[in-house]
Amino acid sequence: MKNEQTKVKKKKKKMKLWKKILLIIILILAILIGWFMYKTEKNGGGLTGMLATLAGHDENTRKNLGEFRCLILGISTDQGVDLTDTIMVLSYNPGTQKATLLSIPRDTYTGSDPSRATAYEKLNALYSRQHRPDETLEAVNNITGLDIQYYVVVKTEALIKLVDVVGGVTFDVPIDMDYDDSKQDLHIHLKAGEQLLDGDKAEQLVRFRHNNDFTTYPEEYGDNDTGRMRTQREFIMQVMKQTLKPDNIWKIFDILDVAKECVITNVNFDVAKDYVPYAVEFDTLDLLTDVLPGTNTNKNTSGTWVFVHDPVGTEKLVQKLFYDRDETEETDDGKNTDKTSKSKNKTNEDAEKLSIQIINGTGDSNKLEIALHEIKSLNYEVDTVESNEVDKTIIINQSDIDDDTIKGIKDTLQQGIIQKFTDKKSQYDIKIVLGKDYEG
To answer: Which residues pair with 384 in a beta bridge?
Structure first.
């Protein structure tokens, strides 16, 4: 009897001990969860706050991070030769949440005497020589005057696999594309319009230059390589936007596998982990894009077509893209504001100096009248013209008008994809193509 009572007492003691241990574990977990939630909130909350906390950041980390700049090289491996199809400079500032994407024509001349230019001296030929990204990086730094430290070499296979990993990328293909090159085993057959592109179709899109009958992008879009670079920039914007969706956080290991297999870079893990938490909240509307200014010419001893950049125009563009838009000032409430936007707004206060063309692609003259009334209410000079029906409304910034003005027009119309295409030949600062999505 005593033995049974002793056993019961021992069991009760064990149960009490386990209850105490369980209580301690629960308390520790509660403290840890509470601390994690507190740090997450201090780091901005949401997915950004969680990732920042997991990376060991505090509320001052973002403030102390500088601008990240890197050279992006898109490489196609056709016929055993690594061809540089895409050359871009990307910058991202986590403090201001602004980014820039500058396209550099692949035929850009890197030598000292354009009159003696050869294909061997084109920018896209540098990587194929010895597969050294640093040579291309040095050339781009010389051309732009930027001190870019990092490079990312992306093979065609990486684009295909990444697009497939994230479940495809929705993109508005600008024109019908029909091209075949049996030597490269390249076959491009895409219809114009918004659609979900898988990896194979994404490759077709970014490599397209012209159709089998040599027709290409319309002049207002940017023909041949200019149009191609514009499509590449806009597609990369969508890839970034759709890859950084919160849903894809669960695919991070698949994305990293693609990067490990098909991407060559000197960006180390410590650098990447500092910027990734803030990149997930980036809005592609804050991505400013443009093309290196210059001229295509074959006036040289070899008759080779090369792109000769304009040093003065390049200096001005680089200043505007990479420096002016990141100038900030402290307001009385301690918040950062963009000084560049303020100064630009002053230069554009006289709205009547801006001229706008509205192209009606809605198929409905009443909608054109509504849009005309709305834009004229902003005191702009407006001309109109009828056109064939188009699906999407596009607002084209043709004269380096400030972002706030363009966004103001979009807010007024409550519709529109913002694009930038400098057209010195056009008499209009802004071109608005009204699509069938405009409700009026």
So the answer is: 358
- Whether residue 290 has pLDDT greater than 50: yes
Closest CA to 421 of 286, 172, 220: 220
5 is a domain residue: no
21: left (phi over 0), alpha (psi -120 to 50) or beta: alpha
Indicate the angle between helix axes 2-42 and 46-54, nearest 10 degrees: 110
CB 94 within 8 A of CB 78: no
Query: pLDDT tens across 271-283, in order?
Result: 777 776 666 666 6
- The pLDDT, as a whole number, for residue 340 is 39
Distance CA 147, CA 215 (A): 39
Q: pLDDT by residue (tens digit) across 230-251?
A: 888 888 878 877 877 777 777 8
188 pLDDT band, cuts 50/70/90, is very high
State the pLDDT at residue 405: 87
Tell me, yes or no, whether 76 lies in a domain: yes
Count of domains for the chain: 3
Place of tokens 């010195």: 424
Domain boundary among 9, 32, 62: 62
CATH of residue 240: 3.40.630.190
Rounded-to-integer distance, Cα 247 and Cα 53, Å: 19
